[in-house]
Amino acid sequence: MWVESLLLVALVAGVRGQGEQVYCFTDDPDPYVGFSTKTAYNLARGEVTPEEIVPEGCEPRQIWHLVRHGTRYPSDDDTAAFLLTLPGLQIDILLAHQEGQGELCDGDLTLLTGWSIGALNMTWSSQLAPEGYRELEAIATRYKESLPLLLDQPFTNSSFKFRHTATQRTEASARSYALGLFGDDSAYIPEALDPDPLLRFYDVCSDYQTQVEDNPDATLETRLFEEGEEMTSVVFNVSRRLGVPLVLDEVLVLYDACRFYKAWDPPSAAAWCVVFTPDDLKVLEYWQDLDYYYTNGYGHAINYEMACPPVQDLLQHFSAVVEGQEEPSGVFHFSHSEALQPVMTRLGLFLDSKPLTHDHEDPDRLWRTSRHGSFATNVAFTLSSCGADQWWVSAAVSEQVVSLGGCASSLGCTWDEFIATYGQFLQCDLDAICHNTLTADLAISTSVN
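Now predict its structure.
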């Protein structure tokens, strides 16, 4: 099998060498950086303006912010794969090129030669990386600058409310966000609930676990794409470029290395990204989009039906403000990809006219997790008072205003429009939706998204 693979690589390389220009990553002034849920936040975020959040003549009264943790280190399994695979493969690639195999350009070879595993170790697994701390602090700072009347005030328990899941990366994200708002550690951030039906509703939903999480058929489209021609071509392309025959699992380790190292240091060129052409990366991006579409998105109804607790929480807080009750200026929740994507789906965002399938990759699709699922992805709703009994709701995903269903304006909703569209979610019985019996007895997931 090894000999056959090597012959295939040599044959394809020979055909490729007949007049076709080889892609050189280090010569690309604008390399592709759509890395699905491992995309660096600053490569995906928008630049929302104060005028887009709060209309002229209105005053912000409350912000509700659901935030995915920032850039993290790999999980135990991914870290082990990096440690076991990357240093040896680096040597194999360099030796192959010395022997005339492979087709990396000189700049790419130089970049890969200078790569080192560094201090990465198992004790860092799934923890927030330095870039993650910076991302969360900067998000809060920008929102504070956009909404000074609402957010430029000292912390009090009555003015600001924080909640995070029982993980280091979400707690550290919450504290970094608070630092960006207040400039110090004055914020009270309560201990996490475990289980948490608000921020990890997917962990306490029996139907989700049986229909999706533990059901191989739920991701059939992803598996069919994995086995198809496009993914097979990526494996061939990578093997040819490197001069080393690889299998899919090895290529996916290199893909993770490319996107994690880029996320940890977005301004710099990530050495393992020399492995892929932009077309390869687009195929891998679609593979990831398919997977999340069927595990967190529109692919199965339970994915979004179970996401009503955060939407209910949003509606309850905004309704209380509208009714004149005392409410905090800011409500800040810190969770995971498995929460953010179902909530966005429950809200009807990024819905394509046709389902994503293994045999049709739409380059103009709305469901693109590199844009709405990166590290530190966040959904911010702002409620503003616009005069006597007049209220306005705006929404932004990763600092880019999004249109809400049922709204006449692309910048937001009147309160009546908002309630007409989403008011149904004021009623949310998670146990009934999920057919739970003893919610607290359900196992807590070890997900690392």
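DSSP finds 18 helices and seven strands in the chain.
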